[in-house]
Specification:
The protein has 451 residues and is of the alpha/beta class. Among the domains are: 152-217 and 297-349, FAD/NAD(P)-binding domain (3-Layer(bba) Sandwich); 239-295, no CATH class. It is built from 13 helices and 16 strands. A five-stranded parallel β-sheet has the order 7-14-8-9-10. A three-stranded antiparallel β-sheet has the order 3-4-5. Strands 6-16-15 form a three-stranded mixed β-sheet, with no helix packed on it. The protein is globular, with a radius of gyration of 23 Å.
Length: 451
Amino acid sequence: MLFAAQLLHAGVVAGASLKAVLLDRREDLGGVAYSTPDQSHRLNVAAACMSAFPDVPDHFVRWREQPGGKASEPGAYAPRAEYRRYLSAVLAAAQRRAAPAVSLERLVAEVAAVEPAHDRVRLRLAGGGAIDADIAVLALGNLPAAAPPGCEELADHPRFVCDPWSPGEIERTAAADDGPVLLIGSGLTMVDMALSLARFRPDAPLIAMSRNGLLPRAHLPGCVAPMPAPTRVDPHVSFAELVDRVLRQAADGSARWRELVDGLRPVTQAHWRRLSFEQRAAFMTTRHRAWSVLRHRMAPEVAARLCELLASGRLDLHRGAPELTPGRGEQLALTLPGGQRVALSLAINCTGPVLDPRASAQPLVRQLLAAGHVRAHPLGLGFDTAPGGAFRRADGASHPRLLTLGPPRIGELYETTAVPEIREQALELALNVVARLSGERDAMQVSARAG
């Protein structure tokens, strides 16, 4: 949605003739993160940092202002469903401002296969039909979750929820009986599920288990200014050393680690690109999880509610891999680290999205990989992409007509999963796409006149 809005704007500014087609399986746009109807599911970034436009930082804050002149709080953490409405408003406004020569068509459809060629890209739709385009941008977002190690055989079990963000799954968890619920993982997805379950099923005991038992940290209330970011990357200081400084500050109880984390964000991508393959692999093994706990934080009100659940005993946190076995009938049985067995009402996979596309069950992803049109990043972090967002094919060459942005570029950029980074990519990609299409059409006109 961010890219589509920027594309329309860039086309108008350039005086281009452009038709865009936006395809999605869902009737309502907004993606997985903002599809939740639960008002307790909040943004993990303050409103002041969630503008759709890099050059209008207060756009979301002003959009949130109430009728009658009540100002919006820049430090507020808005419900994610509200941000979905904001994105819809941004796209609708871009469509209204677009010139007649620049248009956007919306199709509710699933792309079953993508076939890039030298001069076009063909998108085959599930159920029949195809669309030919000059350029295709695969804004895939995070890949859906897969069953965690040791639970693969339970993926189809009636009491096992493999992907809690699939349509209807939150409602399914709310309708189950009030027996104990296992939440596999202890990150932000677990927090979301715990808050929803505590409201929908107030008598159900909640058990969270993860290999490290680490919970996300909380944002401080209001807007906290980050440490000023360096204007350039110091070649004598590695990204690992900078992260270690933050980890030490957090371990020592200093509140300044949040400022250090936020100050690193503008230069994280530059630091990551400097690392060799071996250095990136070592970072993922030794520091990634600890860094993620500090980097991806909870809204203050979400953290307060989670603390209440833990203090009251409604939510128990255990360290270790869950031992799950089928019980009688449709039941699932959990063996806790001390040997106690618990009959579960549900087991919910909260381990988060799949990072390695080779482990994804999505038909489109599997088709693209099998055909060699794209390849996984060597570290298993998203797809292998070139600067600018072009996918790399199986032979390593980049395809100029098959592009992406956001989470698929995590192996190349590392910091690429949040709106402040994605909006920059959306703007850059839109400008490049419009410039390329305008240049190709100018070249065709010159060729036609010469002929």
